[in-house]
Structures are given as structure tokens and as C-alpha cells.
Amino acid sequence: MKIQSWLLASLLVPLSSMASAQDKPAAAPPSAQATMAKKAEALTEEQIKQSHDLPALSRLAQLYNSQQDMQRLTWVLERVSALLPNSGDLKLQLALAYTKIGDKTRAYDTLMHMQMQGFGYDISKDPRFEPIHGTRVWDYLVANLQVNAKQFGEGKVAFDLPKGDHLFDTLAWDAKRKQLLVGSARDGAIRHVSEAGKLADFIGANAENGLWGVDALGVDADHDRLYVASSASPQFKGFNKDNAGQAGIFEFDLASGKLLHKYILAQAGTHLLNSLVVGKDGQVYAADGARREIYKIDGGSLKLLTSNPRLTNIGALALSADGKSLYLTDFAMGIFGFDLTKSEPFGVAYNTANMVLGGINDMYWYDGNLVVVEGGMMPSRVMRLKLAADGRSITGAMPLDVAQPAFADLGRGAVAGDNLYFIANRQDALYDDNGVLTDAAELEPVRVFRSNLRFAWDQLGIGGKPTVLEVGKSPATSAPLTVPAKPSNAASKPKTDADQH
Questions:
Q1: pLDDT by residue (tens digit) across 310-338?
Q2: In CATH, what number does 153-452 get?
Q3: Residues 6+ apart with CB under 8 A from 67
């Protein structure tokens, strides 16, 4: 699964040069291009901001960029940023667009909100921002965005897995035998992992069990079961025209590795079960992320529990301790909930002024909290989110590890006691859309990182009030723990009205 959607990429790539005269919109017949351009030139701000069609907005962004129509390009970016509020890269592009049209106030305001939300960028030497240099506001924003990007936390690399053509993408924890398991999306094998990262064969893909690539693992400790979400995707070495698009959940005895049951999706179409969670009662849920569907094992088969076409994807699942609330993530839109007792969805409220919950690669339930791995956040981080008693809102957040040197392309993991183990350098990007390894020489040992889930357990974290980092301090001594309502005198927050500079 690619971390960044094609839509976001299509918006960001043409805008990175901010209206180069050589940029061209997506290829189309000349007559179609002319018709589209004529209609686009007549669109008003109100019409653009009523659109919910992200692919169409992406095409408009490319067109306005190539025509250097910065005003309409700005309207499109404003609309897309509203629809995808968790993307720091889009917000940065919007700040650049405001800078380009000479709207210093709104450029500052966008950057100010970004630093309050925890985004970390070094924009100090970006020449595209030169028109808004030279003010106290600019200096303040640069310093705080840099502070947000600083390394934070006490987590460490636990061990490295041997490099090779394996695509180790998911982990699980066997609490009874106190050992980790790792699954391969490439060869469909599941291996035991020692504390030193040594691998031992456990379950292999073969004709008897019918495993395809391993995309997610789940353990039912009470019943000593291992559940494997497996899909025949192009990355799987055994992929062919006969198994293409098939997916299912495979149930194994956790002690012996013996296959017990298979639950294969019978519905037509291409499936990829990319996430899985097991409740304390043994109930199993899995998500087909691209199809935005959630299934459960019921009566010996996989049955559709819910679907939501308004989501962009489903990336991860987590289940409350009482088994009543199922949480799901959308990489672009954040965290949502589903009430299993009423079979209805619910929102998860939080203060958007100082918290970003997009770019989530994986999510776990831990002692009344949701723990999220945000590989798509800038900077990458692991966060602990304190839930209200009813599980419908987030009352505080604590970063566990931020911008660690080992963080490259964050992936899935497993909770083991009070620790979270997760893959810190996924290598999916080395494989093309046909599953071909593009350059074997670029393969690296897979780093498995360990974060302490009870880090700063007695501290409040980010609360309900919007706050900002104090310039010159790291997150360990300022936000996002208990932060001052105002920065210190040495870095007092100046007014953001550009006319007063």
C-alpha cells in the first residue's frame, strides 16, 4: 500500500515549482483541453468552494498552475485544504500561494496554524517565501516550525531484521510465548523473531494453506489463535491471473502453526485486506482499505459489517477493551468510530486547532488510549491519544517519539506489554505497481523501533486549548506537554496583521 494517495501527489507535484510556465496539465485531446480550459476560466470562487470532487479539483489545480492563474489556484488549494485538513504539505502549498499573490497576512496565518498544530518544517531558506521575510512574525514562525521538527522521545531501535526481498510489513505479539512474529507481503511467510532480530521459520505459504502475501496479523491470546489477513496482490511472488485480487483471513493454531480455518472473500472484484484486529472475545474484524469496507468473521465466513464510500481509504483498525467500539483511520481524514452495539458510525471529536490526526499508518488500543503511528505527518511521530470515558472524543495527546533518526517510512506494529514495536523503514516504495523490485541494491535491513507506551503517563499532554511552542525549547520542556498560554518575553507572539510591520 502506497503511503501517499495519487490524488495528493497529483496536487503537490505540479505546485512544487509554483506555476512554472513550462508546466502542462494532464494529457488530454487538444479539443478536450480547450473546452476544459474555457470552463475553468469562468469558474467563480463560490463555485470552486462548493466542490467535493477531489479528482476534479486536482485537474483544476494543474490547469490553473500551467496558466499561472494564481487567484483561482489559491481558491482550489483553499478548498482542497478544507477537504483534506490533515495534510501539512497542502497547507504549505497554500501558504506559498498566498505568498505568490502578495497576501502576507494569510500566508502568516496559515503558517501560524501549522506550527500550532505541530507541523515541523524548515522554511528558513526556501526562496519562494522571500516576499514575506524580514518581520518578527516570520522569524517567530521559522523558529517554531523548526522546533516542531526536532527529535523527541526516548524510544530506540529494538533490532534490525535481515535485509532481503521480503517486504516485512506487519508484526504481532505472542504474549504466551513472549515473542514477536513478522509477516512477509512478498513470500507469504510468518516468522518468529528473537530479541536480537533473529528469524525462525514458523508458517510458510504453500498449497496446503493457500496463503498469499501477509498484510496484517492478529493474535487471540486467550484462545491461542493467530489470524492472518492475506491478499494476492502484485507484490506477492506467487501472484498470477488465477489468484489476482483474492483475499481472506487464515486462522492458525498459535502454538503449532497448524491451519484451522480459512475465510475467503467470495465477492467479485479486487480485494486487499490491509488491516485486522481481534477482540478479547475472539471476534475478528478486517478492513479492505481501498474499497472502504469492514468485514467480520461471522458464522464461518466473512460478512460485510459496514462500508463508507465517503472515506478516501481505511488504513488501520483498533477495538476498545469492552469490544463495543471499533475505531478506524482514514489516511487523509483522520479517526472515526463505529458503535458495534448499535451498528452505527460515530465521530471522534478533538481540538483541530492544536492536533493533527492524519497520515496514520497504524493504530492500537492501550489502557483507555488510542496509540497512532503517523508516518504521513511532518514530522513522523508516534502519539498516545487519551479518550474520554465514552470513547467519543480525545481529551489529550502525548507524543511518544517524534522525528527519530531511525524514522524513514513508518509501518505497522504490535503492542507487547507496555511497549509498541513497529517497522520504521518500510520498503514498499522499492517495488513498482507490477510488484517488481526496482533496485535490489537499495534494500536495507528492516528497523524495528520500540516506543514505551507509558512514557510521561502522568503528564497532561496537549489539552483542549490551542497552544504554541515556546521558541528555543524542545517538546521535552514545552509543548506538547503542559505549555504556556503565551510564549515567553524573549519570543512574544507578534500581531499577524502584515500592515503593522
A1: 899 999 999 999 999 999 999 999 999 99
A2: 2.120.10.30
A3: 37, 41
